[in-house]
């Protein structure tokens, strides 16, 4: 059984029903995504987790209507403001990065030749709405796409020792909302096309 986690079901409105796939609507944002994913993995055994949904692309990384496989996710603005190292007692460290499962990525390698390229993801708690913030985030993290759940789902799966991967359809450009070219339907269609291809290779 494969668990597909989305923030909201309309993001997967174009996905066909499949045997052996459970769809979980986790809610919007990193906290809701972490709680829902961890809860689902604690209740049932799944062979793999796929986080799927729409995302914004940093300009030059992808176009609206494209889809990407996210190889790794970073939790934005976590820790000490400005990005400096945060000293914690007992040599404790902050976990701000989660990687997609290497085996699942290898299974999907052929999809790169078909145009579903790898990208780096950034998980935020609020949608970026200015070009200045977009530039700051891009410069600091070197990311390609922005979502609000990716890190949380990948991290929850890693803690549960379940392989996970992330698929994102591009619905907008990150930055000023007036010029973001928001297109939910186009992003959702791209998500469904890519997710169908991924499920064909990992289910």
Q: Write the CATH homologous superfamily.
A: Nucleoside phosphorylase domain
Could you say which overall geometry the principal axes of the C-alpha atoms support?
A: globular
Counted by DSSP, the helix tally is: 6
Give the strand tally.
Answer: 8
Strand content: 25-35%
CATH 2nd-level architecture: 3-Layer(aba) Sandwich
Q: What proportion of the residues is helical, as a percent range?
A: 25-40%
Poorly predicted segments? none
The H-and-E topology, N to C, reads as EEHEEEHHEHEHEH
* Rg result: 16 Å
Determine and state the CATH class.
Alpha Beta
Q: How many structural domains?
A: 1
Query: Structural class of the secondary elements?
Result: alpha/beta
Task: Walk me through this protein's architecture.
It is globular, with a radius of gyration of 16 Å. It is built from six helices and eight strands, in the order ββαβββααβαβαβα. β6, α4 and β7 form a beta-alpha-beta unit. The chain has one domain: 3-Layer(aba) Sandwich (Rossmann fold), CATH 3.40.50. It has 203 residues and is of the alpha/beta class. Strands 3-7-6-4-8 form a five-stranded mixed barrel.
